[in-house]
Design goal:
Hypothetical protein af1432; Ubiquitin-like (UB roll); 4 domains; six-stranded mixed β-sheet; disordered C terminus
């Protein structure tokens, strides 16, 4: 059976309810069971057993057609008849309870119909084809989406592959996951009959997978109760301590939250703002977190105040009145209406204080925002049906044109990377890691598009999110207009420009794995690495093949560059183009700190042995030598044909970069006299070239050509550190 119930006589976790927000008491499953045993109702009358479901459904959808629910219950009851839960209750009580949970959250009729039938294909002789014939393709799809894969066919992979199947189905219809979450909630409520080790295993999967999914889909009502149930099983001592705190607070004579609420009602009434002010007690896990954060808990810490209004503008009006007439805690203000959370959540958050130091947190939202905050995607109804406004206008978009508001970016990314997961174990572990990332950020692309990424994502993650496996060719990034390493962690609101190479055979660096935060990036890199094993090292410690982004690659590149230098490369006498105005026979040396070349503005200084050292006029050594009393000498450029210059190129590491760069230099007529490549640092590589040019006028053109090589982000003249003291006399 896919769901078990607890027997009150059977030991198991007992989860006392914190003060709840439910509008009606929890339904007595034993009473439902007795009603279910009576069988189908007479023709034309709904069975008594689903009367509570119908009542909850009509509260949200007063005009709903209840006939499909009637037929679904009849089929479910007859199919499950004779099957019992481990507690001894009729099995039909489980699909009834799951359907009631969804009905109370406002699910529409199709989802409730599928919920009543969700275990029939898995546990009875009913087939998917029969479901489709009797209830249509949508109900068939939903039932199929939540039907487990058989262990006899999949073995240990059954659970992860079932979740993979369910997530793929959720990508097409989010109601699949809504049914699964309600199913898990009822099973967690009735888990006490299970062996302790099985309780723990189910609780951990609920914690790692189902609760994060409920959070991401915005279904807070399910998420908070699941958190409390898991807390009781996995942390019984801390749970009991938290329960004692709640009981102790409830026994106090004074209630600061009630006093805050009454004061707010007075303020808003005097401002003629129609608003409902409610007290929302914290659930167990929330109290536990607050107590760990704050230490001693005060009365106002055990709940929040909820202010409900009719229109968006009223939210800001309430905020203004509260901040004007009460003492606001400005650091607690957050506007999730202007900038909703990634799970559809909208509210204004603030806090107000009173003289005794008590602080009350306040949530301000419209009634519709509150419905979405509690039920998330379930509150959206059927996203595949035209809205009332569209129907009134007579303009119903085709299915392929409809934008699905229930498929956020995180779900699309999850569906993308799961296709590349090579095996169930990788999928299962990666899914848990992915869902453990709580917050999503938005980064902007230069073309106006956006990327949704988990908090902590880097430029590597952005590359794979935008380009998929083509991101192997990424050679760098600019973040907010500045060059950045691929390991740079992105922040919400950053603008990211990814620099892509042109080589179709580009390879990712092995170091990227250290910076990949998202499953999509990690799996793509790992898959490439699996098919391109690292080369064995030679006896001298160097790799047999180039490994981009590593020190070995840089060393190999440097040797390669040296090999390309012709032994006959011209070696003009340093300073041959310089004339010393008053000393035509003086020996001239070009300063290594600033490497002047023809057409630079230069000045000279006499040093030991009658040698004149020539510096560029803006060189920092000039002022230092002048202050030290060195004699300044007037120098001029003579013949500028043929000049030697040292250039430094800064680049991102990638295969074949050195060959492309030296080829570009050769095309501009530059002959390489010497070349060195430093070991890469954070994916950046520094190349230093001394080149001989036929004419000094070619230098700007050469530098432009080098900058145009993919991967090269800067080229400049060599700027060596000048000596700390003046040159010796």
């Amino acid at each position: 059976m896919s769901a078990e119930a607890t027997n009150p006589a059977t030991p198991g976790p007992v989860v006392p309810s914190a003060p709840r927000r439910r509008s009606r008491p929890r339904i007595d499953l034993r009473r439902l069971g007795r009603a279910a045993l009576l069988g189908p109702a007479s023709r034309g009358r709904l069975p008594d057993a689903i009367g509570h479901v119908v009542e909850a459904h009509r509260a949200h959808h007063p005009d709903a057609d209840l006939e499909p629910l009637h037929r679904a219950y009849v089929l479910a009851e007859s199919s499950h008849r004779g099957q019992m839960r481990k507690s001894g209750e009729p099995y039909i009580t489980h699909p009834l309870a799951v359907t009631l949970i969804l009905a109370e959250l406002g699910a529409e009729t199709t989802a409730l119909t599928a919920s009543l039938l969700h275990d029939t294909v898995e546990d009875t002789d009913v087939t998917l084809d029969q479901v489709g014939e009797q209830f249509g393709a949508e109900v068939r799809y939903l039932v199929d989406g939540v039907t487990k894969l058989e262990k006899v066919d999949y073995g240990a992979a059954a659970e992860p592959e079932t979740f993979r199947k369910m997530l793929v189905a959720t990508g097409n219809d989010v109601r699949v996951m809504s049914i699964k979450l309600a199913d898990r909630l009822h099973n967690m409520r009735t888990l006490g009959v299970m062996r302790p080790e099985k309780q723990e295993r189910i609780a951990k999967v609920t914690r790692d997978v189902l609760i994060p999914l409920a959070e991401r889909l915005g279904v807070q009502a399910l998420k908070t109760e699941l958190e409390d149930l898991v807390f009781a099983i996995l942390h019984p001592e801390e749970y009991e301590h938290t329960r004692e705190l709640i009981v102790e607070n409830a026994s106090r004579a004074d209630d600061p939250l009630a006093e805050f609420a009454e004061a707010m009602r007075t303020v808003l009434r005097e401002a003629d703002i129609q608003a409902e002010v409610l007290i929302r007690p914290r659930h167990f896990v929330s109290v536990h977190r607050a107590s760990r954060k704050r230490g001693r808990m005060r009365g106002a810490d055990f709940g929040r105040l909820l202010v409900l209004v009719n229109e968006d503008a009223d939210c800001y009006a309430v905020l203004g009145e509260l901040h004007t007439c009460m003492t606001p805690v400005v650091s607690e203000f957050k506007d999730f209406i202007a900038v909703p959370k990634f799970n559809l959540y909208q509210s204004l958050h603030t806090a107000v204080a009173r003289e005794d130091g008590q602080v009350a947190e306040v949530l301000i939202r419209t009634h519709q925002m509150h419905k979405v905050a509690e039920a998330g995607v379930i509150a959206l109804g059927n996203p595949y049906t035209a809205s009332a406004e569209e129907q009134a206008r007579g303009k119903v978009p085709a299915d392929e044109e409809r934008v699905d508001p229930t498929r956020p970016g995180w779900l699309s990314r999850l569906l993308d990377w799961q296709e590349a997961a090579p095996d169930p174990d990788t999928f299962w572990s990666t899914l848990r890691e992915d869902l453990a990332q709580d917050r999503e950020i938005t980064v902007f692309r230069p073309d106006g598009g956006t990327l949704g990424l988990p908090e902590g994502a880097t430029c590597v993650d952005a590359a794979y999110a935008q380009y998929g496996e083509d991101a192997h060719a990424c050679i760098g990034a600019r973040v907010n207009g500045r060059l950045a390493t691929l390991s740079t962690v992105l922040r919400d609101g950053d603008t990211v420009q990814l620099l892509m190479g042109q080589d179709p055979a580009s390879e990712p660096s092995r170091e990227w794995l250290e910076h990949a935060h998202t499953p999509a990036a990690r799996i793509a890199i790992q898959r490439w690495l699996a098919t391109h094993p690292a080369p064995a090292e030679d006896e001298d410690g160097t790799g047999a093949a180039e490994d981009p982004g590593t020190a070995k690659a840089a060393g190999a590149s440097a040797r390669s560059a040296a090999d390309q230098v012709s032994p006959d490369a011209p070696a003009a006498r340093p300073g041959a183009a310089i004339t010393v105005v008053d000393r035509p026979d003086a020996s001239v040396r070009l300063a290594g700190c600033c490497t002047p070349v023809p057409l630079d503005e230069v000045t000279g200084f006499a040093v030991r042995g009658g040698v004149v050292t020539v510096h560029r006029a803006e060189c920092s050594a000039v002022a230092r030598m002048a202050n030290a009393g060195r004699e300044e000498v007037d120098v001029r450029w003579g013949d500028t044909t043929g000049c030697r210059v040292t250039l430094v190129a800064e680049s991102f590491g990638r295969p074949h970069l050195l060959a492309d760069l030296t080829e570009a230099m050769a095309l501009e007529g530059a002959e390489i006299v010497s070349a060195t490549v430093e070991p890469p640092s954070q994916q950046r590589v520094r190349h230093t070239y001394t080149v001989q040019l036929p004419d000094a006028g070619h230098l700007p053109t050469l530098m432009r050509a080098m900058r145009n090589v993919p991967g090269v982000y800067d080229v400049g003249r060599a700027q060596h550190h000048a000596p700390a003291s003046p040159e010796p006399a």
